[in-house]
Amino acid sequence: AQKVTQAQTEISVVEKEDVTLDCVYETRDTTYYLFWYKQPPSGELVFLIRRNSFDEQNEISGRYSWNFQKSTSSFNFTITASQVVDSAVYFCALSGTNQAGTALIFGKGTTLSVSS
Amino acid sequence: GAVVSQHPSRVICKSGTSVKIECRSLDFQATTMFWYRQFPKQSLMLMATSNEGSKATYEQGVEKDKFLINHASLTLSTLTVTSAHPEDSSFYICSARQDGVGPSYEQYFGPGTRLTVT
User: Fold this and answer.
1) How do residues B55-98 score in pLDDT, each as one tens digit?
2) Is the peptide bond before B40 cis (omega within 30 degrees of 0)?
3) Quick check: B95 and B106 in contact, CB under 8 A?
4) N-to-C CA span, chain B
5) Which of B34, B93, B105 sits opposite A45 (nearest CB)?
6) What pLDDT score does A100 carry?
7) Is B49 in contact with A100 (CB distance < 8 Å)?
8) Which of A33, A100, A98, A37 shows the shortest CA–CA distance to A68?
C-alpha cells in the first residue's frame, strides 16, 4: 500500500530559526514522484517542488531545501531563516496508483507557525 | 498558464438541498480531473476521478449517488452534493491533468470550495 507519513503535526518556531519538516513514504513502485505543497489559511494549495524517484540530488531554492533519501524513504523539507509568511500547513504527497489513474496521496500535513 | 478555477469559492446551504461545484481548466484541456475533500485540520482525500465522456471512478467509501460527478466537456467537471447534511461540510478541491503534456501524475489544483451545510 502507498502511504505518506508526516509525523510532526505542529511546529512552532521564532523568526530566523531553521526548521525541518519530515516526510516518510511507502510505495512498491520503482518509479514514483514526491511533492511538497504549502497551504496558507486561504486554502489554496501552492506547489513547492516535485522530485522523481531516480533523482536523489538535494535541491535548494532560496530559503527552501529538500533532502531526498531513498534508503530511508524520506523526503524532508527545510526552511532556512524562517519568516512569519512561512506560517502555513505543509503537505508532502506521493503520486499514487488509484483505480483510475495517478491522483496524489497526501500526508496529514504539518502546521508551521512562525512568530516574530 | 495551467490555471484551474472553482466556483463558487464558498457556499452555504440548508440540509436536504443540493449544491453544485464547478471545476474549470481555463487555458488547457483536461480529459481527467480529480476531486478531493479536506475536513478541517485534516489532509486531502481523493474522492473520485472524473473522465470526460465517461462515468467517474469513485474511491472506496465515497457514495456515488450522493456525490454526482459530471465531466461533460474537456474543460469542465462538476460535483453535485445531493441531499446535503452537516457532515458534508468540508473544503472541496479539484485538480486537472493537462492532456498530452507531461507525465501522468502532473495535475493543477483549483483554489477550493468551502461548503457549509446548516
Assistant:
1) 999 999 999 999 999 998 999 999 999 999 999 999 999 999 88
2) no
3) no
4) 37
5) B93
6) 45
7) yes
8) A33
Q: What phi and psi, each to the nearest 5 degrees, are found at residue A71?
A: -60, -30
Residue B102 pLDDT level (bands cut at 50, 70, 90): low
Q: If residue B16 lies in a helix (H) or strand (E), which one and from where to where?
A: none
- From the CA of B112, how many Å to the nearest CA of chain A? 6
Distance in Å, alpha carbon of B25 to nearest chain A alpha carbon? 16
Residue A99 has pLDDT above 50, yes or no: no
Contact (Cβ atoms closer than 8 angstroms) between residue B115 and residue B90: yes
Pairing of strands A46-52, A33-39: antiparallel
pLDDT, average across residues A79-84: 97
Going from the C-alpha of B11 to that of each of A41, B6, B40, B80, B110, the distances in angstroms are: 17, 12, 16, 12, 16
Please calculate the CA angle B72-B56-B58 and round it to the nearest 5 degrees: 150
For cell 516574530, name the residue: A116
pLDDT, one tens digit per residue, over B9-36 is 999 999 999 999 999 999 999 989 999 9
